[in-house]
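If your schedule permits, I should be very grateful for your opinion on a structural question. The matter concerns a single protein, recorded as an amino acid sequence and a row of backbone structure tokens. Could you please explain, in whatever detail you think fit, how the structure tokens follow from the sequence? I set the record out below, with my sincere thanks for your time.

——
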Amino acid sequence: MNILLITTRLNLGGIGVYTTSLARSLKDKGHKIVVASSGGTLLGELKKKGIEHIHLPIDTSADIG
């Protein structure tokens, strides 16, 4: 099955860790996974597993920094 996961960013913390973990688990089950986000510190984890990433310039009003 082809699965697209979309999130704002892939940084340490809730949604980033969850999305990365879900993507790896689904890939291990034989699915083709693509993750779309604005990137982040966990992007390397996807690359290690050979999971495709599409960069989307997603900005939210909740950004701190």
Summary: The radius of gyration is 11 Å.
